[in-house]
Design brief:
The chain has about 140 residues and is mainly α. It is about 60% helix and about 0% strand.
């Protein structure tokens, strides 16, 4: 069964209510952060709620994978620089990803942003468990 947040996220792109930052500059990512926190959080929730191995990718040409991965890793408690380094290989617009994370920091930080948009405390715990230790594949760069 598909997670509701992921469905909303994809539908927003298809219906044209959410711009595709891959075709825009950093402003597209800033708009994504400002206007679509619920959808981004829904994508992070999918990662938190999943059992077993997980493949994270953009659908229909979306290039928000790096941002979603960075948010999930930050929510899991990774330091900013480590989360960014792990997410950058999945991101075609590194400067835009950095700007988006800076915008989220301006909204009170990753935890406050995700909580405000619906991520639960138990989902934060699940992310911390998922990405705890080397078995997460972070040391080997297996995140992308």
């Amino acid at each position: 069964m598909e997670h509701t947040g992921a469905t909303r996220f994809r539908r927003s792109f298809r219906e044209g209510t959410m711009s595709n930052p891959a075709t825009e500059n950093a402003q597209g990512y800033a708009d994504l952060v400002r206007l679509h926190g619920r959808e981004l959080t829904g994508a992070v929730a999918v990662i938190a709620d999943a059992d077993g191995p997980l493949l994270v990718h953009g659908a229909d040409g979306e290039h928000t994978t790096g941002l979603v991965l960075a948010l999930a890793l930050l929510a899991a408690g990774l330091p900013h620089d480590e989360a960014l380094a792990a997410a950058l290989p999945a991101e075609p617009h590194p400067a835009a990803l950095r700007d988006a994370l800076a915008a989220i920091a301006g909204h009170g930080g990753t935890e406050a942003y995700l909580l405000r948009h619906g991520l639960t405390v138990s989902q934060f715990h699940a992310l911390r468990e998922r990405f705890a230790g080397d078995e997460a594949g972070l040391a080997a760069g297996d995140v992308s």
